[in-house]
Structure formats: structure tokens, C-alpha cells
Amino acid sequence: MHNFRWKISGVLLSSLLLFTATAQKKTIDQKVDSVLSLMTVEEKIGQLNQFNDNWRATGPVTVDNDKFNQIKNGQVGSLLNTLGTERTRSWQNVAMQSRLKIPLIFGQDVIHGYKTTFPIPLGEACSWDMDAIELTARVAATEASASGIHWTFAPMVDISRDPRWGRVMEGSGEDTYLGSKIAYARVKGFQGKSLGDTNSVMACVKHFAAYGAAIGGRDYNSVDMSDRTLWEVYLPPFKAAVDAGAATLMNAFNDINGVPSTGNKVLLRDILKGKWGFKGFVVTDWGTIGELVDHGYVANDYQAAQTAITAGADMDMESRCYKNNLAKLISDNKISINLLDDAVKRILKKKFELGLFDNPYKYCNPLRETNALNNNNHAKVAREAATKSIVLLKNEKNILPLSKNIKTIAFIGPLVKEVKQNKGFWDIDIPGADSSFIVSQWNGLQNKVGNNTNLLYAKGCEVDGDNKDGFAEAIAIAKQADVIILSIGEKRDMSGEAHSRSNINIPGIQEDLVKEMLATGKPVVVLINAGRPLVFNFTADNAPVILYTWWLGSEAGNAIADVLFGDYNPSAKITMTFPRVVGQIPFYYNHFNTGRPVVNEEDHVYKSSYRDIPSTPKYPFGYGLSYTTFGYSNLQLSKKKMAKKEKIEVSFTLTNTGNLDGEEIVQLYLRDKVSSLVRPIKELKDFTKLMLKAGESKTIKFVIDNEKLSFYNQQLIWDSEPGEFDLMIGASSEDIRLTDKFELVN
Ligand code: BGC
């Protein structure tokens, strides 16, 4: 146990006994001040340094053979990429040999699961299921915290309208309203009831800000954006995460309008720590303080450190700029000690809240680790989350769900027998753990079908390359089957950080394999595995059935089988627009109308269009099918005019008009018809997901209030303007089933 002796006066001690929540908070602040008063400048700077340990690095690693002594000398505040109770304990032991015994924080990218792997976040977002999303974050936190981790670098809440960007897989897609709800749910899930519970980890909301708008979808690229778009589209998910109590934020690699995020005082000090009242700390993204030099924003590391600390970056991930320059900056009077103290206090506070000063080994219990990493309930959660993430894009002639009495199924394709691929990018390989807990697609199907079904397999081809040698075998196998299931797509590491692509077609010759399978005349079900919306026009136009499975995690195989055979009726809807061709990007549903909109496809000359393709997406935002169908009727508004302080209640009837029970994600969109600034043609402003039995009807209610009608005006003030609004309710952003109008009056 840590043996720190508090400098607490008698007066303070008696006030402690009051035990109000505020008094409790004050106590931590006072403890922080006590520690701070004992620290030398070097020890203070030490708290601001985060070094990489030995696990998978995602950036240029600083060669540093003296980590041991630096930790022992109190020169390091945190490590990232340290996995497991054994290793975290051993480093914490070293920190306990430092003069003040200030514990280390261990951070890790627990993006979509720790050992148990959940669907990639973009896939999971397609569930529109906040409870399920919060639950997977909860389970991830339970496993990670049991394994010595205090802090996850998640959720990533970057809105993105560009599927070329490899990191779309980590976010929630293109919509701000949905993205904000998901950001909130994920923070709640990671942090649990309270920091300091042994199964909670600190969330780190990233990447502040607008990283998802990198020009051309090229990772790490610049962002050029109006303040209005920044405030209206890109910042709200961060605000939602801060409102959920996020303990930390990470800044971004990109510059915005020429100011690199790491040196962006307006973002970090004025908005985040000022206007939003954020009390946690900001960690830089990997090496970004040093990268201020590469941006050409400062001349050297000395200036970089000065710029970053002044802007409000509290902890330096891996650049060593703080370590090497802050002491001199202070002695040169270039930065005040208050600036340093503020950063240190923010970090120490979180260490207290985590309970690390009371027990630095609190998260290092090997028995708890073993139990948490072998909890069968976690696989159940993963399977449910995965089934909820699978999007049914097409299902001609109701080929799905498959009957469980099919005699012969041919399971074809390069991804059928893959194991680790199913985990997707940003997975974690627990040291020493084998992969047997990951359910391949092949094993999932085997688990599902009985002895009467004959399962055949052929690989057909690789994911990339142009070798068709395997086609003949695949065709021969396919011809013996009653149904062909074809699993194609990207490899797990074709998306993710540093995996932007200029061509997002299904790679290699996989669509040729689709053609061959269709030529057999058998029913073909295509599974598309990917970390982004891909372009696959041949398959989309010709295959009768398509399931978009993203990367589903450790229960991928079971979840896919559940959906194929109807044990789960698919309900997911895509949260990014799928373009027809890469040339349409950036492509998103909530765009402006322009002065020359395409109203009908036959008349697109001298209209805002491309001459060579239709103006519509291949699949629109919010789209996804079910094995059943839903009818929308009887729309009613409690009134047609509302003042700012009033509300309108909207209700309608949703009916399951098909033969199977199923869930529908109902979406409410609004359009501000005339305003002082051009507004999007529609914006998601509410949604709900509900289960209806076959034939069942339910009344659904939404409430329109002033918040839903507001936007950032020219003065960047969030407000509404009187006038008419279109109300649209539907099954996707394009499949609008019910419409009405109402008016906001003064
Ligand atoms: C990524 C971050 C990540 C960090 C640590 C960076 O390259 O941009 O999202 O948290 O590495 O792994």
C-alpha cells in the first residue's frame, strides 16, 4: 500500500467529516495541492510524460533504453501499451521506488474490446442501440481494468464523410446527432458508475478536433473548415462526451485552417477547458508536439513544447518535447509555473479519482484478471452486439433466412476460414492467449447447422491479387450446393489508422468470383467484410442477397450464422452513405440543396451533378433491411405552430406488416425551410429502435423542442429562427414514409 502522509490541517480534518459530495471533491483537490507542494519542477514535468512500453506501437517510437531509471526518478507519469497485471505491476513497482511514489497510469487503445472483441465501432454504430453500445464498452472496461489498464484511448468520436479515410472504422459514421448519442453511451460504458470502481477505466475522447475531415480522406492530413461547420457538425460529439463525464481528451494530428490541434489554444483552453468547463486532462496524440515542427508551425522542439503547454496539452504522448524542454522554458521565463501546475494537477486528480494513491496495485489482481478474461457472459454480449451490427443490404425473393434443413451449403471465399481477421483493426492480442475463442465464419456455420446439412468449402481466391487458380475448385464445389454463401471484402488491416485508400472497390478479383458463383444459377448470399463503406456495384446490382458484416469481433462466426438462419432478424442501418464511385466522395445525406439541385435524374444537365453517374448514393444513410416489413401510418402533430418555449408532440403508428418478429429503427428528420443561412436538406433529429411482433402495431412518440430547431447562425450563436419546418419520418434518410409541416412562431 502506498504510504503517503497527508498535510491536512485540523480544520480541514473536521470539515472532512461533513462528507457532502462537494466536500469529498474538495478533499481530492486538497490532496492534489498537498502532493503538488512537495514536488520539484522536474517531478512535475515527469507527470506530463507518457512513454510507450512494449506492445504494438502506432507511431515512431523514441529509442529510450533508460525507461527504468526515468520512472524510478519520477520522470514519467504514464505508460501506454503495457498489457497485463504482471507487467503493469512490475512497472508500478518501479514508480513506487520514486521519491514521492506517485503511481503511473497505464493507457491502452481498447477501441472495441480487450480480449473479447466486439464489432468495429462503425459496425456497432449501425445498431443504433445505445444500451448495447454502452454494454460492450462496459465489458471492455471490465476486462481491461482487470488486466491492469486504467485508461482507454476511446471513444473516437470523429465525424467523417469520407470512406477513403481508414479511420472511419473507429467512429460512428457521418451523423452528428447519432454520433453524439453514441459518444455519450460509450463514455458511460467505459467509466461505469464512477472512476475508481475497479471495473471502470477512464475514457479518452478523440481526436480533438475535426480529424475526420482530413482533406482527401488521407490520414494525418490538414483540415480546412468554416467555424460554423466545426461547431455544428464536428464538435457536438465531443461536447456530448464531456457532458457524459469523460475524464480525458486526446487532441488530433491535423491542423484546422493552419493551426495544428496540439497548438490550438482556442480549441483546448477557450472551448474545452473554458466554455465547456472540462476538468480532466488532455493527452496529445502520438508525437504531435514534435510534429508541430514538421507542420512548420514552430522552429524547434523547444518552441513546440512552449506552444503545446500554452495551448493546453497536458500530457505528452511519446514526443519527449516536454521532458527535454519544459524545465528550460520555465527557467527562461517563457512559460509560467502556473501553466505547468495546472497540467500536473489535472493529471494527479485523475490518479486520485482512480484510487491509485490509496493502492497503486488496485488493478493488478491476477485472479481477477483470469476471471474477467474468461467470463462466458462476455462472449454472449459480443454475439448479441455482432448480430445487431450486421446490415441486410439486399434480400431478393426472401432467400434469407435460410432453412435449417438445407442439404448442402457451399461456403466460399477468402475470409471463410480466417480467424483473427474477424477482429478487425485495433484489436488486442493478449500476450499468451491463443485464438481459439475467436469464432471463424466457418466454425460459426458449423455450430449452427445440424448433422443433416453438408457444409462444403473452397477458398476461391485471395482478398487481393489477381490469381484465379482457385476459381475452378470453387465453381465445382458451388455446383454441388443448394445455396452458396460467399465471404469477401477487405482484410482487417486495409482500414484503420494509416490505412487510407484511394480506391475503395472490393479488392482484387473477388467480384469476378461473385460473377462465377452467380453463373452457377444457385442462390448466392454475399457477405461483405470491411472497415468502411466499399464500392461493389457489380455485386450490388447482381447478387440477390448481401449482408454487410463489417468486422464483427470474436463472435463473428456465430453472429453471422444467427442472421443467416433467422435466429436474429437483422435490424442494423448504415450510418455512412455508400457511394456509387469514389468520385462522389465526400458524400453525405445532410448536405445543402444548392441553387441547382437535381430534382429528377433525367434532368441533370446544368444541375449540381456529375454527368457520368446518378446523383444518388448506392445505399443512403440510415438504410438497412429486415426479414419483415414495417408500415408507417397515422402521423399526428399535437399542434402546427409552436413558440420557442413550447413543444410539439409527434405521434404515429408503426406496424410490423410481415410474417416475422423484428426490430425497426425509425428516424425523424427535420428541414428548416428558410433561414438566415442555408440549412441541410434534412437532418436527423431523433430516432428510436423497437421490436414488434409479426402483425403488431405500436404508437411511437417524438417531441420537437426548440433545441431540435436550432443551429449556429452567422454570429455562431446556437439559436432557432421562426418559420416553417418540414418533418419527415422514415426507415432511412431516403425512405421517408410520413411527412408534415409545422411553424415556429415568435
Ligand atoms: C492514434 C491514437 C492512438 C495512439 C496510441 C495514435 O497513432 O492516432 O488514436 O490512441 O496512437 O496508440
Question: Would you give an account of this structure?
Answer:
This protein has 23 helices and 26 strands. A six-stranded mixed sheet has the order 11-16-15-14-12-13, with helices on both faces. The chain has a five-stranded parallel sheet with strand order 4-3-2-1-10. Among the domains are: 208 residues, Glycoside hydrolase family 3 C-terminal domain (Rossmann fold), CATH 3.40.50; 116 residues, Immunoglobulin-like. The longest helix is centred in the N-terminal third of the chain and has 18 residues. It is of the alpha/beta class. 31% of the residues lie in helices and 18% in strands. Helix 3 packs antiparallel against helix 14 and helix 18 packs across helix 22. It starts with 9 loop residues before the first helix and ends with a strand. The site of beta-D-glucopyranose has 9 residues, from loops.
